[in-house]
Amino acid sequence: xxxxxxxxAPGKRTQAKGLGRRKGRAPGGSKTAWVHCQxxxxxxRIPPNHSGDCRVRINLDGRLVASTxxxxxxxxxxxxxxxxxxxxxxxxxxxSFATVGCNLHCTHCQNHRISQASPWDETVRVQxxxxxxxxxxxxxxxxxxxxRGCQSVAATYTExxxxxxxxxxxxxxxxxxxxxxxxxxxxxxxxxxxxxxCRLVDASNLDIKTMNPAAFRRxxxxxxxxxxxxxxxxxxxxxxxxxxxxxxxxxxxSTAEMRKLCRFVAKELGPxxxxxxxxxxxxxxxxxxxxxxxxxxARAREIAREEGLLFAYVGNLPGNDGEHTRCPGCGELVIQxxxxxxxxxxxNKGACGSCGxxxxxxxx
Amino acid sequence: xxxxxxxxxxxxxxxxxxxxxxxLGLVLATMGAVVVEHAYPPGSLPLGADGExxxxxxxxxxxxxxxxxxxxxxxxxxxVKGEEGAP
Lengths: 364, 87
Prior knowledge:
The structure holds two protein chains of two kinds.
Chain A: E1 34-37, E2 45-46, E3 50-51, E4 57-60, E5 63-66, E6 74-79, E7 93-98, H1 112-115, H2 122-131, H3 138-147, E8 152-155, H4 164-177, E9 180-185, H5 191-198, E10 203-207, H6 213-220, H7 224-236, E11 240-247, H8 255-269, E12 275-279, H9 294-306, E13 312-315, E14 325-326, E15 333-338, E16 341-345, E17 347-348, E18 351-352
Helix pairs in contact in A: 3-4, 5-7, 8-9
Chain B: H1 2-37, E1 54-55, H2 58-66, E2 78-82
């Protein structure tokens, strides 16, 4: 399906103040203008017929094209716990979608086949077509979510920031239709566009990969300060926020680094922010490291408790005690999970079913 | 004649072998360079906040846009920088 400017959604533009965006060609009508993409901190200066670092934002004749708008490479129905979001409509179904491209290049990326692919990649396109994912417009995503009983739509798997227009307009359509919208992101965006998106999004899982700026630069090719700023912005804009930290042996598993992460979350995002310590498995260009030992994840949870975080979980470890939610007031088990499945839910109108303490999150 | 020509033949064969080995070496070295460029450790990844700008296959892209495979949807948050060759 072709998507032209005439089919643009009627929703309001979310142009951030002060970004100095100008439509059209360079002065003099040149067809060979460079463009300056101001969406993310990379601030790519893109010559004609080149893409930015994300591969998907392309300067076509002096006009920046969002080449993956409406071009999903994956559309799936997942449990919301898979994002992971544990305090957001637990047990509900979520319609997840993604396009190719990412503005980070993590060596351990679990979805590198799509995140590091190009929009014109025929292999990915053919696979997307086979799955029926290709060419789904925002309104169709929302209609599909409602038809399949999904309470939310998530831009996930790759990086929602690089398909910004698609993510934002899907969130707008969700809001109109009474469906919640979710992003799973690294938060690597400039403040203006990020704030504008956050005002439309109900919940977000933000991935903090490390607290070491040099390691982040080396492993993901970005600057950590922008990720941390993204988390703070999401919090300021009242998005329900949960943090994921993939614990990788020898890379970010030191006690000092875990403590630093927990202190950042407690101080800047609030102690009620859930943190998911996920187990690493060798993948992509990081196959030389072993899976995370279970004891390391237990240590991470212990450190989180010491630093005053109310909800610390382990991920990618089905059946572990660290998957359950306990009431910070009385210690009772309020949500029991196995993997991505909720086995019992002891939350009553957003409060602990046992002691009545209000539980932080978005509940049914 | 055959006996007289033998040393010359072996010399030519030697030269040809040397050229073949040289070309093979060059090809392997080029392949090695490509492999190294894309392999871990990530020293070759785009470091810092500056984006890595990549050329796109223009003809393929245009034909895919015409056929509706890729969107020609204008992106938000950008501005024109100037004429060709601008920094």
